[in-house]
Protein backbone atom coordinates (compact mmCIF):
# COMPACT_ATOMS: atom_id res chain seq x y z
CA UNK A 1 0.00 0.00 0.00
CA UNK A 2 1.47 3.34 -1.07
CA UNK A 3 1.57 6.18 1.48
CA UNK A 4 2.02 8.89 -1.15
CA UNK A 5 5.44 10.01 0.11
CA UNK A 6 8.91 10.08 -1.41
CA UNK A 7 11.07 7.01 -0.68
CA UNK A 8 13.28 9.05 1.68
CA UNK A 9 10.33 10.47 3.62
CA UNK A 10 8.66 7.05 3.77
CA UNK A 11 11.88 5.53 5.15
CA UNK A 12 12.22 8.29 7.78
CA UNK A 13 8.62 7.79 8.89
CA UNK A 14 9.05 4.02 9.00
CA UNK A 15 12.21 4.32 11.08
CA UNK A 16 10.47 6.75 13.47
CA UNK A 17 7.56 4.34 13.99
CA UNK A 18 9.59 1.15 14.34
CA UNK A 19 12.50 2.81 16.16
CA UNK A 20 12.26 5.60 18.71
CA UNK A 21 8.48 5.76 19.07
CA UNK A 22 8.20 2.00 19.48
CA UNK A 23 10.76 2.15 22.29
CA UNK A 24 8.83 4.94 24.01
CA UNK A 25 5.57 3.00 23.62
CA UNK A 26 7.12 -0.17 25.09
CA UNK A 27 8.63 1.75 28.00
CA UNK A 28 5.22 3.32 28.70
CA UNK A 29 3.47 -0.06 28.54
CA UNK A 30 1.41 0.88 25.47
CA UNK A 31 2.66 -2.05 23.37
CA UNK A 32 4.69 -5.18 24.07
CA UNK A 33 7.17 -5.10 21.19
CA UNK A 34 6.81 -2.61 18.33
CA UNK A 35 4.25 -0.18 16.95
CA UNK A 36 4.56 -1.63 13.47
CA UNK A 37 3.25 -4.94 14.79
CA UNK A 38 -0.16 -3.28 15.29
CA UNK A 39 -2.16 -4.20 12.19
CA UNK A 40 -5.59 -2.73 12.92
CA UNK A 41 -6.14 1.02 12.70
CA UNK A 42 -8.83 0.91 15.42
CA UNK A 43 -6.29 -0.66 17.81
CA UNK A 44 -3.60 1.82 16.77
CA UNK A 45 -5.52 5.07 17.28
CA UNK A 46 -5.78 4.91 21.12
CA UNK A 47 -2.14 3.84 21.34
CA UNK A 48 -1.10 6.83 19.21
CA UNK A 49 -3.23 9.17 21.34
CA UNK A 50 -1.51 7.96 24.53
CA UNK A 51 1.91 8.17 22.87
CA UNK A 52 1.34 11.82 21.96
CA UNK A 53 0.90 12.61 25.66
CA UNK A 54 4.35 11.28 26.64
CA UNK A 55 6.87 14.03 27.54
CA UNK A 56 9.61 12.41 25.44
CA UNK A 57 7.31 12.36 22.42
CA UNK A 58 6.37 16.01 22.87
CA UNK A 59 10.02 17.03 23.20
CA UNK A 60 11.28 15.02 20.24
CA UNK A 61 8.33 15.96 18.03
CA UNK A 62 8.92 19.65 18.73
CA UNK A 63 12.64 19.29 18.03
CA UNK A 64 11.84 17.42 14.82
CA UNK A 65 9.38 20.06 13.58
CA UNK A 66 6.41 17.72 13.86
CA UNK A 67 8.05 14.79 12.06
CA UNK A 68 6.97 12.22 14.65
CA UNK A 69 3.37 13.42 14.55
CA UNK A 70 3.38 13.24 10.77
CA UNK A 71 4.80 9.71 10.95
CA UNK A 72 2.02 8.61 13.31
CA UNK A 73 -0.65 10.10 11.04
CA UNK A 74 0.91 8.50 7.99
CA UNK A 75 1.08 5.09 9.67
CA UNK A 76 -2.57 5.38 10.73
CA UNK A 77 -3.54 6.18 7.12
CA UNK A 78 -1.49 3.23 5.93
CA UNK A 79 -3.26 0.88 8.36
CA UNK A 80 -6.67 2.24 7.37
CA UNK A 81 -5.93 1.66 3.68
CA UNK A 82 -4.43 -1.76 4.33
CA UNK A 83 -7.44 -2.79 6.45
CA UNK A 84 -9.86 -1.56 3.77
CA UNK A 85 -7.99 -3.45 1.05
CA UNK A 86 -7.85 -6.59 3.19
CA UNK A 87 -11.59 -6.41 3.83
CA UNK A 88 -12.33 -5.88 0.15
CA UNK A 89 -10.12 -8.82 -0.84
CA UNK A 90 -11.68 -11.00 1.86
CA UNK A 91 -15.17 -10.19 0.65
CA UNK A 92 -14.19 -10.89 -2.94
CA UNK A 93 -12.69 -14.24 -1.99
CA UNK A 94 -15.71 -15.11 0.12
CA UNK A 95 -18.05 -14.39 -2.77
CA UNK A 96 -15.94 -16.38 -5.22
CA UNK A 97 -14.96 -19.33 -3.07
CA UNK A 98 -17.41 -19.29 -0.19
CA UNK A 99 -14.61 -18.76 2.31
CA UNK A 100 -12.23 -16.05 3.46
CA UNK A 101 -8.50 -16.46 2.82
CA UNK A 102 -6.06 -15.22 5.39
CA UNK A 103 -2.97 -13.50 3.99
CA UNK A 104 0.20 -13.45 6.05
CA UNK A 105 2.80 -10.82 5.17
CA UNK A 106 6.25 -12.36 5.60
CA UNK A 107 8.11 -9.86 3.43
CA UNK A 108 10.05 -8.37 6.32
CA UNK A 109 11.36 -11.70 7.60
CA UNK A 110 11.85 -13.31 4.20
CA UNK A 111 12.62 -10.60 1.59
CA UNK A 112 12.06 -11.79 -1.96
CA UNK A 113 15.67 -11.10 -2.91
CA UNK A 114 16.91 -13.64 -0.35
CA UNK A 115 14.68 -16.49 -1.42
CA UNK A 116 16.66 -19.29 -3.08
CA UNK A 117 19.87 -17.35 -2.33
CA UNK A 118 22.94 -19.16 -1.06
CA UNK A 119 26.20 -17.57 0.04
CA UNK A 120 28.39 -20.29 -1.46
CA UNK A 121 27.24 -19.43 -4.99
CA UNK A 122 29.26 -17.24 -7.32
CA UNK A 123 29.07 -13.66 -6.04
CA UNK A 124 27.34 -14.74 -2.85
CA UNK A 125 29.99 -13.54 -0.41
CA UNK A 126 30.15 -9.81 0.20
CA UNK A 127 33.56 -8.18 -0.21
CA UNK A 128 33.79 -4.94 1.79
CA UNK A 129 32.71 -1.89 -0.24
CA UNK A 130 32.54 -3.92 -3.46
CA UNK A 131 29.21 -3.27 -5.16
CA UNK A 132 29.63 -6.26 -7.48
CA UNK A 133 29.50 -8.82 -4.70
CA UNK A 134 27.18 -10.29 -2.12
CA UNK A 135 23.88 -8.62 -3.03
CA UNK A 136 21.47 -10.74 -5.09
CA UNK A 137 19.29 -7.72 -5.92
CA UNK A 138 22.21 -5.37 -6.59
CA UNK A 139 21.42 -3.31 -3.48
CA UNK A 140 21.19 -3.76 0.26
CA UNK A 141 18.17 -5.83 1.30
CA UNK A 142 16.09 -4.47 4.18
CA UNK A 143 16.26 -7.37 6.64
CA UNK A 144 15.24 -7.06 10.32
CA UNK A 145 18.94 -6.76 11.25
CA UNK A 146 19.54 -3.92 8.77
CA UNK A 147 16.43 -2.11 10.04
CA UNK A 148 17.59 -2.44 13.64
CA UNK A 149 21.11 -1.20 12.83
CA UNK A 150 19.65 1.84 11.09
CA UNK A 151 17.49 2.60 14.14
CA UNK A 152 20.40 2.19 16.55
CA UNK A 153 22.64 4.44 14.44
CA UNK A 154 20.04 7.22 14.50
CA UNK A 155 19.43 6.75 18.22
CA UNK A 156 23.15 6.84 19.04
CA UNK A 157 23.70 10.06 17.09
CA UNK A 158 20.64 11.51 18.89
CA UNK A 159 22.23 10.68 22.26
CA UNK A 160 20.01 7.74 23.17
CA UNK A 161 21.24 4.47 24.70
CA UNK A 162 21.91 1.62 22.29
CA UNK A 163 23.63 -1.80 22.61
CA UNK A 164 27.39 -1.43 23.00
CA UNK A 165 28.24 -4.58 21.05
CA UNK A 166 26.63 -6.91 18.53
CA UNK A 167 27.89 -10.42 17.79
CA UNK A 168 27.30 -11.46 14.16
CA UNK A 169 27.41 -15.23 13.63
CA UNK A 170 26.87 -17.20 10.44
CA UNK A 171 28.44 -18.85 7.43
CA UNK A 172 29.82 -17.10 4.34
CA UNK A 173 27.23 -15.03 2.52
CA UNK A 174 24.66 -14.68 5.28
CA UNK A 175 25.00 -10.89 5.62
CA UNK A 176 27.63 -10.15 8.29
CA UNK A 177 29.89 -7.96 6.15
CA UNK A 178 26.92 -6.28 4.50
CA UNK A 179 25.50 -5.43 7.93
CA UNK A 180 28.77 -3.85 9.09
CA UNK A 181 29.09 -1.86 5.86
CA UNK A 182 25.47 -0.79 6.15
CA UNK A 183 26.06 0.44 9.70
CA UNK A 184 28.91 2.64 8.45
CA UNK A 185 26.58 4.02 5.78
CA UNK A 186 23.93 4.81 8.40
CA UNK A 187 26.41 6.62 10.67
CA UNK A 188 27.72 8.58 7.68
CA UNK A 189 24.19 9.69 6.80
CA UNK A 190 23.06 10.47 10.36
CA UNK A 191 26.20 12.53 11.10
CA UNK A 192 25.97 14.41 7.82
CA UNK A 193 29.45 13.28 6.80
CA UNK A 194 28.58 13.40 3.11
CA UNK A 195 30.22 10.05 2.35
CA UNK A 196 33.55 10.89 4.02
CA UNK A 197 33.17 8.32 6.77
CA UNK A 198 32.34 5.57 4.30
CA UNK A 199 35.23 6.63 2.04
CA UNK A 200 37.66 6.51 4.96
CA UNK A 201 36.67 2.94 5.76
CA UNK A 202 36.57 1.91 2.10
CA UNK A 203 40.14 3.17 1.57
CA UNK A 204 41.37 0.57 4.03
CA UNK A 205 40.00 -2.26 1.89
CA UNK A 206 40.96 -1.03 -1.59
The geometry reads as globular
What's the order of the H and E elements? HHHHHHHH
Low-confidence stretches: 98-108
Span between termini: 41 Å
Overall description:
The chain has 206 residues and is an all-alpha fold. Helix content is 52%, strand content 0%. The protein has eight helices and no strands. It has helices spanning 7-18, 20-27, 41-52, 55-63, 67-97, 144-157, 176-190, 196-202. Helix 1 (7-18) packs parallel to helix 2, helix 1 (7-18) packs across helix 5 (67-97) and helix 6 runs parallel beside helix 7 (176-190).
How do you describe this structure in short?
This protein is an all-alpha fold. 52% of the residues lie in helices and 0% in strands.
Task: Please tag this protein with its features.
206 residues, mainly alpha, 0% strand, globular
Question: How do the helices and strands line up, and which of them pair or pack?
Answer:
Layout: H1 7-18, H2 20-27, H3 41-52, H4 55-63, H5 67-97, H6 144-157, H7 176-190, H8 196-202
Helix pairs in contact: 1-2, 1-5, 3-5, 6-7, 7-8
